[in-house]
Write a structure and sequence with these properties.
homotetramer, about 200 residues, Arc Repressor Mutant, subunit A, 2 domains, 10 helices, about 70% helix, elongated, DNA-binding
Chain lengths: ~200, ~200, ~200, ~200
Amino acid sequence: MSATTSSPIEGAPATRARRADARQNADALVEAATELFAEAGVDVPARTIAARAGVGVGTLYRHFPLRSDLISAVFRRELDACVAAAAPLEEAYPPGEALDRWIMRYTQFVAAKRGLAAALHSGDPAYEPLATYFSTHLTPTLGRLLASARRAGEISQEVDAAEFLGAVADLCHGVRPGGAASGRAERMVGLLLAGLRSGEGGD
Amino acid sequence: MSATTSSPIEGAPATRARRADARQNADALVEAATELFAEAGVDVPARTIAARAGVGVGTLYRHFPLRSDLISAVFRRELDACVAAAAPLEEAYPPGEALDRWIMRYTQFVAAKRGLAAALHSGDPAYEPLATYFSTHLTPTLGRLLASARRAGEISQEVDAAEFLGAVADLCHGVRPGGAASGRAERMVGLLLAGLRSGEGGD
Amino acid sequence: MSATTSSPIEGAPATRARRADARQNADALVEAATELFAEAGVDVPARTIAARAGVGVGTLYRHFPLRSDLISAVFRRELDACVAAAAPLEEAYPPGEALDRWIMRYTQFVAAKRGLAAALHSGDPAYEPLATYFSTHLTPTLGRLLASARRAGEISQEVDAAEFLGAVADLCHGVRPGGAASGRAERMVGLLLAGLRSGEGGD
Amino acid sequence: MSATTSSPIEGAPATRARRADARQNADALVEAATELFAEAGVDVPARTIAARAGVGVGTLYRHFPLRSDLISAVFRRELDACVAAAAPLEEAYPPGEALDRWIMRYTQFVAAKRGLAAALHSGDPAYEPLATYFSTHLTPTLGRLLASARRAGEISQEVDAAEFLGAVADLCHGVRPGGAASGRAERMVGLLLAGLRSGEGGD
DNA sequence: AATGAATGAGGGTTCATTCAT
DNA sequence: TATGAATGAACCCTCATTCAT
């Protein structure tokens, strides 16, 4: 019985309709924000988002009182998908390759989401929840992949999963999907992964 | 006794003295901007910078009509020092080590200058001149170091100098000197350098 | 019972009521602008207008995003009244007198609206719409009056309606209602009208 | 012995040189202002004028502490020339034609001096001296021409010289030399002069 | 629950004017 | 006397956020 779910037994269909409406609005807002974050960064004006979603600003604030709430809503689903992509990769490939493939998937995701990297390292407390989401969901996933690869003798460098995720996100910074920088992030992340294999040991 | 140092035996006192004053203001502004860029990013309000320097806004605009002028003034000297540091390293060390040491020097510099990386990838045309400065000064320097290392058989990966510089700058993103992230940038750059040596060739 | 009059039997109360409020603000702004344009010219600061209307600047910009929007709002109604005044005069008086009377009415209107003339000839593109309004509404009206008078053999001079309107507006320039210059504009416009009758023909 | 002429006997040639320099600067400023007033109106920034004259702003303020001082300096010479043009016309032509010709000369002068008319009727006390100059120099000149013409039975309307001068200036408002409005002022002033002849008597 | 009007702080930039040199 | 650096008030305009309806 979460706080956002009201009593399971309620009679008025009107209320239910209301709720459905509200849900639709929230969805429209997330969709609009997704598009606009990609087009113009996470600092796009609130009114612009509301307008794109076809609702009033008030509605935006009702559903997402903090900007970070909207950011989280925008990225959470895809972040979850990213996490979920790990298991199949672990089954289908040997540890080293699973690691590479997952990181590349993550790279493409972050690169595609202009503003995500910026938000993560902005230092603005508003984005704390997003950082938290990373550390509770993505970091353990990468940690597992790294541990497997190490156990299999594939990587020799000691590396902190959170740090690595952050590094990859940073390398996607400023990349616009389809822009001139396309490919840059992937190449640099490739170097990072290659570095992981190098035999000099973790100093 | 350079022209900018006011000689004790002055030739045109009035003008010289005024110039010295103005110069001091410009210096104070650069200093204030340096601090504030580090504390709060390159988007810190013009008024704040002027106040910190103890001058009026008008003075800031007189000396640095464009924001990029101030950015350049803040970073140019140290950027030049960074470029100049390459030659001695090339003489004192074998190519591979010279490369590593120079990159680490560059890393520390960028990490110390919060806001530099952000400015570089902001996409704001105001920072174009800074990007240009990079491509005309730093990129050739790294290009030379990379070429030597490759000739010496030290590195096998194909890599674009500008891309690599950008990647390092990105990895320094969000790092506050002495902050919790300290060391992170260096570690990740180390991985990048290790990746350069890996034998898988440029794909 | 026009659409703009809030009917006592309201259909959609909430929205309607808000609209009424907003409308009142817009009206207050127009009123404040009218006064201030007269007192201090059309270049009076936006904040001053907002303050006089008892609203925030944002409200002013919401209702009148461009300065010319406010200008238009200030003058349009009276401009329309001026246009509408022509027909009755044409019916009630012979062509020559109708022309004189209408021009005098126009003169009094422009003289009462300090800033109108200035705006018209400022050359500032912001006031283009106002000039357009003149050429599409007032100019044809005067054109008709002039044509009738000429047909009736009352005037012999060839004159362009737009030019004549502009001239009258210019003659009202700097006139403050009730100020020392009062009467000056009317006298000079009278001379202009007398000149129209003179028999020397169009040169 | 005007107030601006210092003691006629002074020894130091250096001082004299100084004075010559100062005079040159003042002249350069007047010239620059003349150009800029025509190009951009009387509200052109002080620095722009100083720059065009090749002097510092301080020099501008030394010579013309008030903006109106500069305005006056700019127009006085030509205003004087305008006044001086009356006598020859009075000798060469019959009163009515002398009046017409002088008014047209005045019209062309004012039309050529963008900003003059605006300054005259701005209501800004800064331009008072200019208005005073008008009433003490130009007004009597026109008064004389009008009186002669009336005495000769050429004009029947009663008209105030100052008012008429103001009206002509207003009609030149917004006219840019060589611009689209060229000719408009002359045509309207022609109407005014024709009106002066009309036989309806001064009402 | 939705709306969007209103608020007003905030940041950029320009210039008139002063004044130390 | 000339200079031009410095000052800071004044304007413009844009949002984030609140709240009456």
